[in-house]
Amino acid sequence: MQVTDTIINVRNAVKTWRMAGARIAFVPTMGNLHIGHLKLVEEAQKSADRVAVSIFVNPTQFGVGEDFEAYPRTEAEDKQKLDDAGVDLLFLPSVGEMYGNDAKTVVSVKNLSNLHCGASRPGHFDGVATVVCKFLNIVQPDIGFLGQKDFQQLAVIRKMVNDLNIPVEIRPVETVRESSGLALSSRNGYLSPEELRVAPKLYQALCAARDGILMGKKGYSALEDEAVIYLQEAGFVPDYFSVCRVGDLLKADKQDTDLVVLAAAKLGRTRLIDNIRVSTAR
Ligand SMILES: Nc1ncnc2c1ncn2[C@@H]1O[C@H](COP(=O)(O)OP(=O)(O)OP(=O)(O)O)[C@@H](O)[C@H]1O
Ligand SMILES: CC(C)(CO)[C@@H](O)C(=O)[O-]
Ligand code: BAL
């Protein structure tokens, strides 16, 4: 595996692959890799001849008081995992390499970026869209792989790619879970043993909401309220729990058939997110 921290080296590697006619896939990450990330790599390898991965804890997507400094950085272990997985190129840029010292341009996907996680983390999705746009311009992959665990992020990136005519196909990858149902996430590492016992209840609340939708007995806001109470009683501080339309992530009503239930909740100092898709089409 080639490892580099410079944009020029990435461009040169990609140019060589292109000249050989290779199809190129890209997987952006913030490191502290787990099996969820490796699933993205595996899917990328199935669809491309060459796979590039980035590890970059992007400061512009963290708000004041969030965990940018504390975010787990495990470079040596991550490199080993990616090498073992047969990744071709690892890009590990510094903040200076990505942003220089005078960056003035921000990519902002309006409306979508202010809902849900964007409402609690102002500016977060501008940081995500900007850095992903930059990575796509640096690597110029044929396909980019993103996890469905970060469902709103996936929607923001897809909208950006479409609106800005970026020539890349974005492929979603299903959420990898513990046997308890807990979605794998680097931030699970912040949880205490007691919190780890409670954390799967977030997914259980999503499953209960899905079952409630499919049974069709209650309105969506009643299901949302029940989930919030269930999570509070379990020890979470819920941020949002919302039955949405997949297309624009706005609140769903009974006519909508392609739904996603989105949730975020704090457990101690850890903010967890998860979601579940539901189709009510007959
Ligand atoms: N459990 C998972 N299953 C599938 N993909 C995942 C999973 N967790 C993260 N990903 C995807 O991996 C990519 C990189 O995510 P990131 O490095 O932020 O990991 P993370 O575990 O989500 O970290 P965090 O705890 O900060 O949210 C994203 O596209 C994300 O959706
Ligand atoms: C897409 C991403 C790598 C951008 O920094 C990050 O938000 C993540 O890891 O999900
Ligand atoms: N996986 C999402 C990145 C973030 O929370 O900043």
TrEMBL record:
EC category: ligase
Q: Which UniProt keywords apply?
A: ATP-binding, Cytoplasm, Ligase, Nucleotide-binding, Pantothenate biosynthesis
First-listed, main subcellular location of the protein, grouped into a coarse class: cytoplasm
Matching Pfam families: Pantoate_ligase
Positions of (R)-pantoate binding:
Q61, Q153
Q: Name one GO molecular function term.
A: ATP binding
Q: Which InterPro entries match?
A: Cyt_trans-like, Pantoate_ligase, Pantoate_ligase_C, Rossmann-like_a/b/a_fold
Would the keyword Nuclease be found if you checked this record's keyword annotation?
no
Positions annotated to bind beta-alanine: Q61
The record's subunit annotation is: Homodimer.
The miscellaneous annotation reads:
The reaction proceeds by a bi uni uni bi ping pong mechanism.
Which protein is depicted?
Answer: Pantothenate synthetase
Taxonomy of origin reads:
Bacteria, Pseudomonadati, Pseudomonadota, Gammaproteobacteria, Methylococcales
